[in-house]
Design goal:
Length: 217
Amino acid sequence: MLTLYHSPISPNSRRVWITLLEKGLEFELVEIKLDGEQFKPEFLAISPFHHIPALVDDGFNVVESLAILDYLEAKYPTPAMLPKDAKDLAIARMVQLVTVNELLPATTTFLPQILGLPGEDPEKIEQAKQKISTVLKLFESLIDDRPYFGSQNLTLAEVVAGTVVIWLPEVGISLSDYPKLNAWYKRLAARTTWQATEATPEAMEAFKSIIVARNRQ
Ligand SMILES: N[C@@H](CCC(=O)N[C@@H](CS)C(=O)NCC(=O)O)C(=O)O
């Protein structure tokens, strides 16, 4: 039995949740409330750095979302979610890693704006916008004329990049200058797996309270 420990507002855990759904796997979903529940000894025994997501498969613990995605792809190869061709695989991996190392940290700068909280830093916002624009240009060139990165079918690049790019219009970054990426984003937003895993207003409010409490400490 597969168990995913997650939080509904986390793009890191949403990418795993979507992959489980896209692969049609049976799994149990356990929410970890990031107001302190992540430090409980039962959870630390699974995830020693107190991070979600964590996946448990019949007693085998996996942490780090990209490692979890690789595990799921290797163990449940149908439908295939990574290209086989060398260049296409490099494209999918580039998109995953550029998302995690460049796009996600830049997008996090907008967290106060996303949550309607004070504390925006105009200089940091400007730097983040520049970084995001460089990422989007790269993604526009990498998607080329295919519906998905390096593939005719949805890949693990989509579940990683798509769950972050989907926040950009929320912070006023339009995709209209990137027509291929814009069409790709709409394709993802229309999928039932994206819709089923969208953060509810209640989840956003709960997350906001956690951030407010953390900022007070
Ligand atoms: N590199 C990790 C990052 C995981 C991560 O940072 N998770 C955050 C939520 S998005 C978390 O668990 N934060 C709570 C904590 O660290 O106490 C991955 O990709 O799985």
